What we know:
This protein is of the alpha/beta class. The protein has helices spanning 5-24, 46-57, 102-111, 131-138, 210-214, 225-229, 264-277, 293-296; strands spanning 28-34, 63-68, 84-88, 115-119, 140-141, 151-152, 155-156, 171-172, 175-176, 182-183, 193-195, 198-206, 235-242, 248-252.
Amino acid sequence: xxxxxxxxxILPLIAIAFLLQACGTQERKLxxxxxxxxxxxxxxxxxxxxxxxxxxxxxxxGLTVEVHDNGWVSDESTFDDADAVVIxxxxxxxxxxxxxxxxxxxxxxxERGVGFGCMHYGVEVPPGEANEEFKAWIGGHxxxxxxxxxxxxxxxxxxxxxxxxxxxxxxxxxxxxxxxxRFVGGIEGNQPYKAQGMEFMPILVAKPSDDVRNGPYVYPxxxxxxxxADSGREEAMLWVVERPxxxxxxxxxxxxxxxxxxxxxxxxxxxxxxxxxxxNDVPVNGIESKVxxxxxxxxxxxKGDKK
Length: 307
């Protein structure tokens, strides 16, 4: 019997190629945690916002998304194969990360290199609680009476070159944009920063006018002397970090008004960021999506006359 040596050589190569292809298409898993109902209708619509983002991420190659509502996951075993966890919820003392043993659970995930991000009120933790963790995990946090939360319309007309900005056009949109965070290393947060293995990159940066700095803020109404003293300074409202543990993180201060998810650039930069924090490749032109008014009206919390 003749043996074709060429076939003996080709078969292992086919097997190797198959394995390489399989490794290259590894699914990344993103866990989105939506907070409990909060604020009047069309504000802090955490569940509806997360479900809308999940819908927009469907079909993104290499990414699987899970949405969990009411402030945490029902079964923490879902974290076992998670590549990123993102919280879009009320912060302060109500922050999901501060309930029960959740902070310790997140600590173990971060140590494993899992990405972590927080959006809107979720970037705030109380003074003295999880402050160092949030600086180390997402690069910074909101601090009551140090940071401020005016409703204003910044112009994002100078986007840096980064996977999160791919395909995003300059935009301006009214929101409750927090600024003056407590950033890692005591930095102002409007410039890239590297220290002790962390790489910090501001993504959405704009200069508040003096009228914005003078307030009123949403709460307390201000003005704060130290906010006024920094007149003319640019402020970061979306920033990302690459951590020394190999994981990624981000903080995003917008997301108060639910209807803003209908803005293509506002939505795309967060879709890109969610993909990036999960360590999935961001397409050259960013993540394309379409949202209708009907879709924006779905899954809203039954808030009634909540104030």
